[in-house]
Amino acid sequence: MSHAAPPRSPIGTRIAIIGNTSAGKSTLAARLARALDAPFVELDALNFEPGWRALAEHDPHEFVRRVREATQGDAWVVAGGYQSLTQDLYWDRLHTVIWLDPPLQRVLPRVLSRSWRRWRSKELLWGTNYERFWPQLRFWGPDSLLWYAVTTQRRKHDATIAAMADPRWSHIRFLRLTSFAEVDAFVAGVERSVAPRAAAPTTEEAR
């Protein structure tokens, strides 16, 4: 695989996807990465170590090193926020930021359904950890993704609005998608735009 994104990509070749937990960042990033033939970088996979130890909190220098290494090339699609650490790493090279901003009432059921599915299937996350479902049922506490989703929605919203108005990032194209239907339509459009076009038939082939 060459990892050379098609030159006619309507969103460029260096893309970051941000948003609340369970908004669909990784799913969208993986799909765009396939369409653009670019590396898919999942920040959670770089952050979490066995026992859910978060490098961004306990060893930010190592987390920064991993992110910098993963975004060295000319084409990549990054899923995840961590903006206090990542803005200084690659935002000056970004072409597009895709902000997934569905309403909270659509996000919370996805938090539970995703946690239930991962817990029931014993899905190994990022090669190191397993989902813990029952803590997600609580509406408070450090282990509750429901609590995290509710308490960070406004903060992430305000931080992204501020970034969009910041002259440092005036070179970035910001796209805000507020529904899952918009996301599906958007990624389908990108896939169509970069799909190889069938060569026109020769005179002999057309006969």
Task: Give the SSE order as H and E letters.
Answer: EHEHEEHHEHEHEEHEHH
**How many beta-strand elements?**
9
- Overall structural class, as computed from helix and strand content, comes to alpha/beta
Tell me, briefly, the overall form: globular
Percent of residues in beta strands?
5-15%
DSSP helical segment count: 9
Average pLDDT metric: 83
Q: What is the first-to-last residue Cα distance?
A: 36 Å
Helix content: 40-55%
In spatial order, strands of the major sheet run 2-5-1-6-9
| Global Rg | 19 Å
| Biggest beta sheet summary | 5 strands, parallel
* Low-confidence region ranges: 1-7, 197-207
Give an overview of the whole structure.
The protein has 207 residues and is an alpha/beta fold. Helices cover 47% and strands 15% of the residues. The chain is built from nine helices and nine strands. A five-stranded parallel β-sheet has the order 2-5-1-6-9, sandwiched between helices. The longest helix is centred in the last third of the chain and has 21 residues, at 145-165. The protein is globular, with a radius of gyration of 19 Å. Residues 1-7 and 197-207 have low confidence and may be disordered.
